[in-house]
Design a protein that fits this description.
Chain lengths: 350, 332
């Protein structure tokens, strides 16, 4: 390996290369199918276009994936995020409806705060099961994944609850500085988390717990507190995502809200280059991964994939991206090319 | 080991015996109710997944009470195994008639055989089952989804001139499909396509699933609006997706109901409100109030009268004016 890698080599080795490339290819496919795909224009004082829609629609997955990244970094997984999102939405919407002045700003703020607090408590419950009682994360969070949907159904009586609060609606449909507020909230959370984990030792401690919980505990890291914190944080993120989804249609359908979002979020994390084995994590990768998921969702109607095969299409794209990400698969491709230098099998960061 | 198994087996057979004997004594004393005139009906509901379903449940419960029918009600919470269990327990209790809305289409053969062997007639409501032997159930009471699609298509053909919003001579329709593979989604699309074929100027330019949800409808509609600026009409397979489409159309700076016309199916309260507000143009009803028709059929079946194999729910359609009129009295 050369001492001073050139810029090209640095770019080629950067862990974000493949996710970014995948996103660009996907955008290119869309542009080929509909040349006007990337057009953006002003509309009622804000930007309007596919790209803007993708930004807004990526917010829920981005938020959930953000919390998921930290959980996965501790070698855990959180399957309950979709159910927590539904509970957040159910709590907020029933609170707004039950309030004296349904359309007031204070009503929206109170309802959302209340919902978020509930979600942090639910996240902490997951943390309790995992860190204190030592239950496997996939099982521990499965409990709330199943029960949570029941809880949200109970809160809304199984009805689709429609709310009328312009402030709440703005969380998803509003614009600040011509950009969708939901996207700004999600990006704000990503930046805040990046600062918190990378400018303090927290990020390193999380990675340490994920790489070897026992060793890190012996080294004096309070693994239990760290695990508890990341699950609580995941609950908070899922709650925010639930509020954005509910605000998007001004209603909560406890049955379908956030359904399978945990899988999209895990996918976003993996596409972003964070390993499910725990340890090193990449928030920038998760950001790109979430944009990729939202772009993929938009690609299906844009290039006119029939409904019957859109899951198949999604699966093929995801397999292709995962193969691109895998150093082994890439090495195989290279070896088959005659004359190409064999790949040095060292130091590819997971 | 052998001993343990034996004990367990005895325990099980004993408890089964206890159950059957309990069931038979019940049957002897009440004889299923036929003797003393009251009818016992076991109803296994799908769940409580939507406002439509809740209205359906309420209608059945209220009608049963009004008609003096002893209703045993269970909620399968969307799971087939719960539903089969509920039907089995109705067979053991020897109810007079069993009615249920199947969670899925297949896998009910065995339990329906058991009901037939016990001589209990079965009525299907709302959804059909896929069994080879149609003698396993008496009748199927429910909406005709194809007919619903046809009504939507008919209205569009009749109003094609007004529906051609941009006046370019062709009516460009985008379709928001229900959950892929669900009977209502397939049948409504089929009925609609059949009727609009009568008018060459009407064309479905894009069609994609919105999964019967508002969020799904909104996201798909957003995409349609971005890629095509000549959309005249939205046909949504249910009200919720139509409501999502309204939000997408408004966000695009257009006026739903005027710049783009909207046709939906269901007629739930939020949908009817939007219709009365002029944001939707036409709704085909999918009536959940099956109670009266169901109780009527049950009585006929028990009296030994012939009933048709298929009974279609009484359903209507609503224009904006009609919606404003009936909205105050809507139950769901």
């Amino acid at each position: 390996m050369p001492e001073n890698p050139t810029l090209v080599q640095r770019v080629l080795r950067h862990q974000l290369l493949w996710p970014v490339l995948a996103l660009l290819v996907l955008l290119l496919v869309n542009v080929v199918a509909k040349p006007s795909f990337l057009d953006v224009r002003m509309q009622d004082g804000h930007l309007y276009g596919n790209v803007i829609d993708i930004m807004r629609n990526s917010a829920p997955v981005m938020l959930v994936a953000l919390g998921m990244t930290l959980v996965i970094a501790t070698r855990g997984i959180d399957l309950s995020v979709g159910a927590i999102a539904a509970i957040a939405a159910a709590v907020a919407c029933t609170r707004i409806i039950g309030a004296g002045d349904e359309a007031a700003l204070s009503t929206a703020v109170m309802a959302m705060t209340y919902a978020i607090v509930v979600c942090i408590v639910l996240g902490a419950w997951n943390g309790l099961l995992v860190s204190v009682l030592g239950i496997q994360p996939i099982i521990a969070t499965l409990i709330l994944m199943v029960a949570g949907r029941g809880i949200s159904m109970a809160i809304t009586d199984g009805q689709i609850t429609t709310v009328n609060n312009p402030w709440f609606s703005d969380l998803a449909s509003g614009f600040v500085l011509t950009l969708p507020l939901a996207f700004l909230v999600a990006v704000g959370m990503v930046v805040f988390t990046a600062l918190l984990t990378r400018r303090t030792a927290l990020g390193m401690l999380i990675e340490a717990v994920g790489i070897n919980p026992e060793a890190s505990r012996l080294a004096g890291v309070r693994a239990r507190t760290i695990i508890w914190t990341v699950y609580g944080f995941s609950g908070l993120c899922a709650g925010l995502a639930g509020l954005v989804i509910a605000a998007n249609t001004n209603s909560v359908n406890a049955n379908s809200l956030g359904l399978w979002i945990e899988l999209d979020a895990i996918l976003a994390v993996v596409i972003g280059g964070t390993s499910l084995m725990g340890g090193r994590f990449s928030l920038a990768g998760t950001f790109i991964g979430a944009l990729f998921i939202a772009t993929l969702a938009r690609t299906i109607p844009n290039i006119g994939i029939p409904s019957e095969v859109n899951y198949l299409f999604k699966a093929v794209v995801v397999i292709a991206v995962c193969l691109l990400q895998s150093p082994k698969a890439r090495a195989l491709l290279r070896v088959r090319r005659p004359g190409a230098p064999t790949l040095v099998k060292a130091g590819s960061p997971a | 080991m052998v001993k343990k198994t034996l004990v367990a087996a005895t325990a099980i057979s004993l408890s089964t015996f206890a159950l059957t004997s309990c069931g038979s004594s019940n049957a002897e004393s009440g004889s299923g109710g036929n003797d003393d005139g009251t009818i016992t009906m076991g109803f296994a509901q799908v769940g409580a997944e939507s406002g439509w379903r809740t209205a359906n449940t309420k209608s059945i419960q209220e009608t049963a009470e009004a008609e003096g029918i002893d209703l045993k009600f269970t909620d399968a919470q969307g799971k087939q195994e719960n539903q089969i269990q509920a039907i089995r327990s109705y067979i053991q209790q020897k109810v007079d008639v069993i009615a249920f809305s199947p969670v899925v289409e297949t896998g009910f053969d065995a339990v329906l055989q058991e009901a037939k062997a016990a001589g209990i007639p079965v009525i299907l409501t709302d959804r059909a089952v896929d069994v080879e032997d149609t003698s396993l159930y008496e009748t199927f009471l429910g909406s005709d989804f194809v007919l619903e699609g046809e009504k939507a298509g008919e209205w569009l053909v009749e109003n094609a001139k007004e529906a051609d919003v941009d006046g370019d001579g062709t009516v460009n329709v985008v379709q928001l499909e229900g959950t892929t593979g669900a009977a209502p989604a397939i049948d409504r699309a089929e009925g609609f396509a059949e009727k609009i074929a009568a008018d060459d100027s009407i064309e479905v330019t894009a069609s994609q699933t919105g999964d019967f949800t508002r969020d799904g409808g909104k996201q798909v509609m957003e995409s349609f609006l971005q890629s095509d600026d000549s959309i005249d009409v939205v046909f949504a397979h249910n009200d919720d997706m139509g409501l999502g489409a309204i939000e997408a159309i408004e966000a695009a700076g257009l006026e739903p109901g005027k710049d783009i016309q909207i046709i939906t199916i269901d007629a739930v309260k939020d949908g009817m409100q939007a219709l009365a507000d002029g944001k939707i143009n036409f709704i085909v009803e999918c009536n959940p109030l099956l109670g009266p028709q169901l109780m009527d059929l049950a009585k006929k079946v028990l009296d030994g009268e012939e009933v048709p194999e298929r009974v279609v729910t009484e359903e209507t359609t609503f224009t904006q004016e009609q919606a404003a009129e009936v909205l105050p009295e809507r139950q769901y």
